[in-house]
Specification:
Elements: H1 15-19, H2 26-44, H3 49-53, H4 55-64, E1 71-74, H5 81-89, H6 124-137, E2 145-150, H7 157-166, E3 173-179, H8 190-200, H9 202-216, H10 218-221, H11 224-239, H12 246-249, E4 253-259, H13 263-274, E5 280-285, H14 293-297, H15 329-343, E6 347-351, H16 355-358, H17 361-366, E7 371-373, H18 378-390, E8 394-400, H19 401-404, H20 408-416, E9 423-427, H21 444-449, E10 454-457, H22 462-472, E11 480-484, E12 508-511, E13 517-520, H23 525-537, E14 543-546, E15 549-551, H24 555-564, E16 567-575, H25 580-590, E17 596-602, H26 612-618, H27 623-639
Parallel strand pairs: 1-2, 2-3, 3-5, 4-5, 6-7, 6-8, 8-9, 9-11, 10-11, 13-14, 13-16, 16-17
Antiparallel strand pairs: 10-15, 12-14
The structure holds thiamine diphosphate (TPP).
Thiamine diphosphate (TPP) binds at residues 50, 53, 76, 78-79, 120-121, 150-153, 178, 180, 182-184, 288, 353, 376, 378, 403, 406.
Length: 640
């Protein structure tokens, strides 16, 4: 279904067209842009509230700055739909996040207007600063570099590292703080409180207003503008010694707060800031979901990425199923953690800014003093968990597989070297789906497998997830325990199964067979079950083992397997290089077995976005792909 853009928006094929509009027309354009986003997302799904919140900012930025020469970097990038639509991707926007379609995030190879690829948060300041330093070096001193970062993304450590460096740089960098008091869930931490304080402080804002009044006249001052700003600033600093500004103390000129929906004012302010050299920050206050009643007034977390909905009533479409559906893995995690925590007072939960996404919110609600949202701070989440473990607590630190990449050193240095029994639950392991390569949980088996003192497990169903979590909270000798599971539903119709211990490093036989053995790990093993059934219909009877652990491997079971089979297929929803299949190859080689091993999994290339099943098919490890691989391996034998 093609969505028709409004009258003005239909004329905008690039920011150059936007610049032809009168300033007075920009409000109408913003309304049309907002409506176009609503029309599209209500039908096709995707991120929503964040893009609506920056409509005016997006229009103003492209109106004032000379993109793509000026570099505009959106932090995380889930709010960049308006940017995509204004930069030549309007007519293709209905393909957003679909297989083969536009990416849901800015991406260098998608458009020259996407200055930097994003998806993981808090990178914009560092990237913009790198570009700004390069521009100085390349003598492009007129070039502007703008990072748009949310108050949520600002809680990430790398953002602070960027600010710290930016403050001592002589660069044309403008950081726009898009402050809507929300992360996906309500934002957390002392910085959030500080931002609220600074937004509501009367004294501070009165003085800042004075600066604004003068700034409006800056163009008349020419070169002396800089001097005037400096004077005013030092005046403010002296007056507000007791209430010093965090950003200014880092040597960043702080402007604002301004109303991020007042387009006219935004255009004026951005034009003024263009003339002020040096690193600076503009604090914009916006409303997530702005302009769409149900999102603006409703639950901002729900409207972060609501799925499809009725754009008139705001009713979110729910899929209707004839049969009861299996629960989502994340919910099984959330409920099971509470169940375990009720029985074991030492259990605590940690999430870096994903209470809803990981279902840690269930524990946060039931046991607020034992479950922590630490902000978008994966590194901190891991080391904080390590600290908790030193005192005998049993942390369950839930981090999406791809976000765990951020905390690799912390896992090695703070957890594994110190033999601390921290439990990691890695949600969204395997293909994330529509979020694409930045969010695929492809690497965790490989990157954890080489770390000593690390146990790596993956459940094939919800009941196993519970058993693994139960096992993980039992006393053990100082190893980390990683349990990975995918986005979406499990396979059982009920999740509240009785829990029992699984001996660490043991697999299980799912099915006997003759000619070949399939070795799977995790939920993807269910595809192997389907493939075995299809093969059986063709008269091919292969064995299937659910290995459950990639580390330690079930060596006893593997000895049996390699003594019986000379053809092995391994399957994992993770990278082939260095992953579970590689572990099997190592076992084979180390023990002097000779078998033909075919490894199925995520290949050594970047796999783009799409439905999970589409990506499994592309990579050849959907049930049909597995069947094909088995048939190919058996072919020479069978045709003899
Ligand atoms: C490293 C990392 N951790 C977690 C996320 C998941 N995530 C995506 S958007 C978001 C909230 C961002 O909040 P903010 O920057 O304030 O933007 P808003 O959505 O409020 O506009 C989070 C936690 C991520 N993208 N990257």
């Amino acid at each position: 279904m093609l969505i028709t853009p409004g009258k003005l928006l239909s004329q905008i094929n690039s920011p150059a067209d936007l610049k032809k509009l009168e300033k007075a027309e920009l409000v109408q354009l913003s309304d049309e842009l907002r409506q176009f986003i609503i029309d599209n997302v209500s039908v096709y799904g995707g991120h929503f509230g964040a893009s609506l919140g920056v409509v005016e900012l997006t229009v103003a930025l492209h109106y004032v700055f000379n993109t793509p020469y000026d570099q505009l970097i959106w932090d995380v990038g889930h709010q960049a739909y308006g940017h995509k639509i204004l930069t030549g991707r309007r007519d293709n926007f209905h393909s957003n996040r679909l297989y083969g379609g536009l990416s849901g995030f800015p991406k260098i190879k998608e458009s020259e207007f996407d200055a930097f690829g994003v998806g993981h948060s808090s990178t914009s300041v560092s990237a913009a600063l790198g570009m700004a330093v390069a521009s100085n070096y390349l003598d492009q001193k007129d070039k502007q570099h703008i990072a748009v970062i949310g108050d949520g993304a600002l809680t990430g450590g790398i953002a602070f590292e960027g600010l710290n460096h930016a403050g001592v740089s002589d660069t044309n960098i403008l950081i726009i703080l898009n402050d809507n008091c929300m992360s996906i869930d309500p934002n957390v931490g002392a910085l959030k409180d500080y931002l609220t304080d600074i937004t509501t402080s009367r004294t501070y804002n009165k003085l800042k207003d004075d600066v604004w009044k003068l700034l409006g006249k800056l163009s008349n001052f020419g070169k002396s503008a800089q001097e005037i700003v400096s004077k005013l600033e030092s005046g403010i600093k002296t007056t507000l010694l007791s209430q010093s500004n965090f950003f200014e103390s880092l040597n960043l000129r702080y402007f604002g707060p301004v109303d991020g929906h007042d387009l006219d004012h935004l255009v004026t302010v951005l034009n003024d800031l263009k003339n002020i050299k040096g690193p600076k920050i503009l604090h914009c206050v916006t409303v997530k979901g702005k302009g769409f009643g149900p999102a603006e007034k409703g639950n901002a977390t729900t409207w972060h990425a609501p799925g499809t909905f009725d754009k008139i009533t705001g009713e979110i479409h729910k899929k209707v199923h004839e049969k009861p559906q299996p629960p989502k893995y994340q919910d099984v995690f959330g409920h099971t953690l509470v169940e375990l925590a009720k029985a074991n007072p030492n259990i605590v939960g940690i999430t870096p800014a994903m209470p809803s996404g990981s279902s840690m919110n269930i524990m946060m609600k039931e046991m607020p003093d034992r479950a922590f949202d630490v902000g978008i701070a994966e590194q901190h989440a891991v080391t904080f968990s390590a600290g908790l473990a030193t005192q005998g607590l049993i942390p369950f630190c839930n981090i999406y597989s791809s976000f765990m990449q951020r905390a690799y050193d912390q896992v090695i240095h703070d957890v594994c070297i110190q033999n601390l029994p921290v439990n990691f639950c890695l949600d969204r392991a395997g293909f994330a789906g529509a979020d694409g390569p930045t969010h695929h949980g492809a690497y965790d088996i490989a990157y954890f497998r080489c770390i000593p003192n690390m146990i790596i497990a993956a459940p094939m169903d919800e009941s196993q997830l519970r058993d693994l979590m139960f096992t993980a909270q039992l006393p053990r000798k100082g190893q980390a325990f990683s349990i990975r599971y995918p986005r979406g539903q499990g396979v059982l119709s009920t999740w509240r199964t009785p829990m029992e211990e699984i001996t660490i490093g043991t697999g299980r036989k799912i099915k006997d067979g003759e000619e070949l053995a399939i070795l799977s790990i995790g939920h993807i093993g269910n595809y192997a079950v389907q493939a075995c059934a299809r093969l059986l219909e063709k008269g091919i009877d292969v064995a299937h083992f659910d290995m459950r652990f990639a580390k330690p491997l079930d060596e006893q079971l593997l000895h049996e397997i390699f003594s019986t089979f000379t053809k092995i297929v391994t399957i994992e929803d993770g990278c082939i290089q260095g992953g579970f299949g590689s572990a099997i190859l190592e076992f084979m080689s180390d023990n002097g077995y000779h078998a033909q091993v075919r490894r199925l999994g995520i290949p050594d290339r970047i796999v783009e976005h799409g439905e999970q099943i589409e990506l499994h098919q592309e990579c050849g490890f959907d049930p049909e792909g597995i069947e094909k691989a088995v048939v190919e391996m058996l072919e020479p034998v069978r045709s003899q």
